[in-house]
Design goal:
The chain has about 400 residues and is α/β, with parallel strands linked by helices. The protein is built from 14 helices and 16 strands. It has helices spanning about 5-25, 30-35, 40-50, 115-135, 170-180, 190-200, 260, 265-275, 280-290, 295-315, 325-330, 335-340, 360-375, 385-390, and strands spanning about 25-30, 55-60, 70-75, 80-90, 90-95, 105-110, 140-150, 150, 160, 165-170, 185, 205-210, 215-220, 225, 320-325, 350-355. The strands form 4 sheets. A 5-stranded mixed sheet has the order 6-5-4-7-11. α2 (about 30-35) crosses α3, α8 (about 265-275) packs antiparallel against α10 (about 295-315) and α10 crosses α12. The longest helix has 25 residues, at about 295-315. It is globular. The protein starts with a helix and ends with a helix.
Length: about 400
């Protein structure tokens, strides 16, 4: 036998047990043994360790049946906190959740600069504060994951953030050096797809999540893992050309998808048509409710071009679930039905197409969930719907 086999098997068993406890929410030792196909003796030893580590708690289930009341096991959600950070142009969002991904605290800090050193100092300051303020648990801050709105390499180095003007900066290394904490960086669209899988779509291993905000991003979960590509830059779907020789894009090409189907582009078109600067979703909602023909035409054109890109994605990846994150689609009546009407190819196959219920919270919730997964060391994570839990 190779040295280390026993400890490795114990680690695998622990991972299986934690995953099942989190998945079920509450489970007895007997049912746990059946679910993970481990002997009761193994379950007993592992659970004893988890109780000692304060990762699991026991609860005596109250019921009216005759006989002994079963003792149930559940994850100790208050044993630590996950810190998710969404670093975007103009603001940094912070979110803290317990170990079940339930929101505990959130805060948004406005940014008046794009300077790397200033933003680095700001991040360090706030992370130190969170670390000090949340020490009232066994593990304190159990992990920190930062959502980056740009290209992040497989080595977690920021290659390019368009709106911040950052090129090849090692934010992870700079933060870890200053804080003596482990930090993880991930593309925001990847984290959005992770949140959709972890919080909402527990029954799929293959999910695409497309975000339509300042640009268009694509997060891909394939066989329950991120699909990042060779360098980690996969998912820049907004720069897929849908109109050859079309509108010029900052990337250098013409006719990119995000020049026709991103919310920022639609906002610009509407502002120009309506002669209204700084247009809001509320104003668009009013025009839609009033049956404004001009707005309806622009929205239908938005859906037309959005559908072209979705058709390409479906044919390339043959996903199980496709989640679209767009506030404009949320306020436009029957938008999903209109999109599906444009997806009439006999070749395109998918099981479910829907608008995200997590919305713009998805990337930061995904950051928290990823921190939890790293901490619990489980291959697959299923958490209660965070938005439902916060209501």
């Amino acid at each position: 036998m190779i040295t280390g086999d026993a400890s490795y098997i114990k680690k695998i068993n622990r991972s299986l047990i934690i995953r099942e406890i989190v998945k079920k929410g509450m489970i007895s030792r007997a049912d746990l043994s059946k679910a993970v196909a481990l002997t009761r003796a193994t379950i007993s030893v592992q659970v004893a360790d988890l109780l000692e580590d304060e990762l699991v708690v026991e609860t005596q289930l109250e019921h009216n049946a005759v006989g002994r009341k079963p003792i149930m096991l559940s994850l100790n959600a208050d044993a630590g906190y996950a810190l998710g950070i969404d670093l975007d142009y103009g603001q940094i969002s912070f979110a803290l959740t317990d170990l079940l991904g339930r929101p505990v605290f959130s805060n948004i800090v406005k940014l008046e600069t794009t300077d790397y050193s200033e933003i680095l100092a700001l991040l360090i300051k706030h992370i130190i504060t969170y670390k000090k303020n949340y020490t009232n648990s066994r593990y304190g801050i159990i992990g920190i994951v930062i959502a980056i709105h740009g290209l992040v390499s497989n080595q977690e180095v920021i290659h390019y953030v368009p709106r911040l003007g950052w090129n090849d900066v090692n934010l992870k290394a700079d933060l870890e050096k200053a804080l003596d904490l482990e930090i993880h960086l991930e593309n925001n669209s990847n984290l959005s797809s992770f949140a959709e899988r972890v919080y909402v779509h527990h029954d799929t291993d293959n999910l695409l999540s497309a975000t339509f905000h300042s640009g268009i991003g694509l997060g891909m979960i394939i066989n329950n893992k991120f699909f990042r590509g060779h360098d980690g830059f996969a998912g820049e779907i907004g720069h897929m050309i849908v109109v050859p020789g079309g509108r010029p894009c900052k990337c250098g090409n013409k006719g990119c998808w995000e020049k026709y189907a991103s919310e920022s582009n639609i906002m610009e078109v509407l502002s120009d048509k309506k002669k209204t600067p700084n247009i809001t979703y509320e104003q668009i909602q009013e025009w839609i409710d009033q049956g404004d023909a001009e707005v309806t035409e622009i929205m239908d054109e938005f859906i037309y071009y959005l559908s072209i890109g979705l058709n390409n994605m479906i044919n390339i990846y043959n996903p199980d679930v496709i989640v679209i994150d767009s506030e404009l689609l949320r306020i436009y009546p029957d938008s999903i039905h209109k999109i599906k009407q444009n997806l009439n190819s006999q070749i395109s196959h998918y099981r479910e197409l829907l608008i995200s219920t997590l919305g713009k919270n998805s990337s930061i919730l995904g950051a928290c969930a990823l921190a939890i997964q790293y901490f619990l060391d489980v291959p697959v994570l299923n958490l209660p719907n965070a938005m439902e839990a916060s209501e």
